Amino acid sequence: MQNYWEKLSKEAIKDRIFAALEKNSNFYDSKVIGVPASHLDNKVFYQDAPFLQDAPFLTSLIHNPNHIGCHTLGSSESFFKGTQEIERELIELCATKILNGASANQYDGYVASGGTEANLQAIWMYRNFFKKEYNIKNENIAILCSEDKHYSIDKASDVLQVPMVKITVSHQSRIIEKKYLEKVIAEKQAKGTNHFIVIANMMTTMFGSVDPVSTYIEALENAGAVYKVHVDGAYGGFFYPFTDANDKLDFSNPKITSVTLDAHKMVQAPYGTGIFLVEKEMIQYTNTKEASYVEGEDFTLIGSRSGANAIAVWMILMTYGRFGWEEKIMILLKRTSWLALQLDQIEVKYYRNPYSNILTMEASQIPIALVKKYGLVPDNHSQPAWYKIVVMEHVSVDSLLAFINDLKKSIDN
Known about the structure:
Elements: H1 10-23, H2 56-63, H3 81-98, E1 107-112, H4 115-134, E2 141-146, H5 151-160, E3 164-167, H6 178-190, E4 195-201, H7 213-222, E5 226-233, H8 240-243, E6 256-262, E7 274-279, H9 307-345, E8 350-351, E9 358-362, H10 368-374, E10 377-378, E11 386-390, H11 397-412
Parallel strand pairs: 2-3, 2-4, 4-5, 5-6
Antiparallel strand pairs: 1-7, 6-7, 8-9, 9-11, 10-11
Helix pairs in contact: 1-2, 1-3, 2-9, 3-9, 4-5, 6-7, 9-11
């Protein structure tokens, strides 16, 4: 089974992490004196606590490995070679076992600080690719994305100085409007822009909606445009591939070159843990050769980053295995379907992708007292049109039932 990965015991996980840490430089026992790195300050963080023998993640935090650079390319800082192996395994697992990539040696990637950084990394990479290979300027490139896109795309457009166009979506389906997309492409081409960076959503943050990437591809190819496709799976990357296996919004689609994942959401890894994945030969366009003192140089936006974050994600996925992870996701999906049924019965309007654990209700039917009581999140804090519920692991049916009962009372009154 191509996308299967084995569940490991706690003991096996612990042994593997401690073995990796042993391969890293121990700054107290070695003669390393040229590196601006060390373990966490031992006057503040106690390094000999007995419980650390059974706490591989906490131990990795204390060892403080710096995973600067991109370790799927070959040469990297040898001081941290043990835990870099863990990160390479994680990148391989995500690219091939979750996103249906062909084989491990066809993808590069790294553990970023979050989905925002990974999205910026992708747009930076494609901007540089177009500029170098087609000898064009920033203003002759355009980012195409849904109006429901994550705000990181706005940030990338601003920081990287690449124009962005938001494609309108249907109010009810949250699907991009094909005719408007075709109009935008034609208008851009008429003004000298024929190179496009597509950001396709794999579950938007507010709605859990999914972009039909074929709509972008068909419109751009019919227009004779040059384009690259990046999938923003910062929310859905660890969820949607397990609920809708028929939608190949992944590396099995030859038109998709890169994907963002975000492990501090559904995976419940520490905050500051995103993942950038890309086909081979592309990440070279973000190489900062001026980082000549770094072994292997640096291809990442962030530079220095904590190896402990990569270890955390690897540990979580290995604890579940493929089937355990699918079971966890299906439980959340079932709870969300139950919630949708309750809202149907009391005639509350909402949007929900059937393969998502996000349910977004029209604000007009939700009393502000319930918004505050249950921590519902608006699409806009100034003028909310929608409020969303995200069915995470801590969101039990009992807590959802309490909300439904309160909402029903407010409607009846």
